[in-house]
Design brief:
- The protein is mainly beta and 346 residues long.
- It has a single domain (2-343), classed as Beta-galactosidase, Chain A, domain 5, CATH 2.70.98.
- Helix content is 5%, strand content 42%.
- It has three helices and 30 strands.
- It has helices at 60-65, 230-234, 238-242, and strands at residues 2-11, 14-22, 28-32, 38-44, 50-52, 73-74, 80-81, 85-88, 91-94, 103-104, 117-120, 124-131, 142-150, 155-164, 168-169, 173-174, 177-178, 192-195, 199-203, 209-215, 227-228, 248-252, 261-264, 270-276, 280-284, 294-295, 298-299, 306-311, 326-327, 333-343.
- It has a nine-stranded antiparallel β-sheet.
- A hairpin with a 2-residue loop joins strand 26 (294-295) and strand 27.
Amino acid sequence: MNIIQESLGQINHQPVFSFVLKNDLGLEVTVINYGCIITKIMTPNQNGQFENIVLGHDTLEEYREDSSFLGAIAGRVAGRIQGGSFELDGKTYTLAQNNYPNHLHGGINGFNKVVWEAEKLEDGVCFSYVSKDGEEGYPGNLAMKVTYRLTNENELCIQYEAQTDQKTPVTVTNHSYFNLSGDLRRDVLTHTLTLKSDKYLELDQGFIPTGHLADVKDTPFDFTSEGLIKTGTVSEHPQNVLVGNGYDHPFILNENHDKEIVLKDPESGRTLTIETDEPAVVVYSGNSLSAEGSFRGVPSRKYLGICLETQGFPDAIHQPHFPSVVLDKGQKYSSITKYKFGLMER
């Protein structure tokens, strides 16, 4: 394993570095300690040509201005919290309403907008950050670690660990936008997705789960057999139309660590298989990507990337029948998501 560290400058007198992880097969993953952002993933297509398969920028300043959580760690709580507040043990906590009137992905200065401490490992990088009591409105001092490891089996492993000195909600995810076409040659509408999921969470007008677990059968949300991403973008199903013609929905996983999420691009031949500890994956088809700006010279547009956000159920803090995302003092939060990069059989 080869790891190259380079300086990118400073933010508030804190040094920012990039780390290029390269395995023996030539696959590369580049991460930075600002937001724990994955800036590039270089993988081969069926002809052996290495290209980048995630949306990203070339400069630190662009990431500082980014509002799409490109490649970043979202937290303390990934997803939306209704009304930007919650109650815990009889006390109400008020959060930033950065997706008015709701709270989204940890707030205005969530984990994606802070500089993390970085430690090089033999096979990756460990990022650490202490989120202070009251930061973005959350209770407790939360000691967070995010470790990226790359294997010679072309597998990127992300491990999340946290401990708190006070009860607090925690569920984090990586918010990379994947595009397996390579260097954004095409949008993701002709990508296919397979999910081991029989149910998804129905959303209200604010994209908050209603609490209803909807069956995927006979709907555009059925990816139990391989299906096109385009299906949801042209669908007249009210849930697809609601989120801007596409997907921005949590799917409940039937299984874990058994090829439960598979994304493919038939033209390039690239595949991405994701396995996780988490109970859900939010599939976001890039419906809200605007036509303004660009990604490394490629103009931004809808459906240019797809996020597969492994996490706890969004707004679980308000839904007693959802799996709890509350971490108590003395407990340890630990979760692993693995991304396996491969090629389709010909």
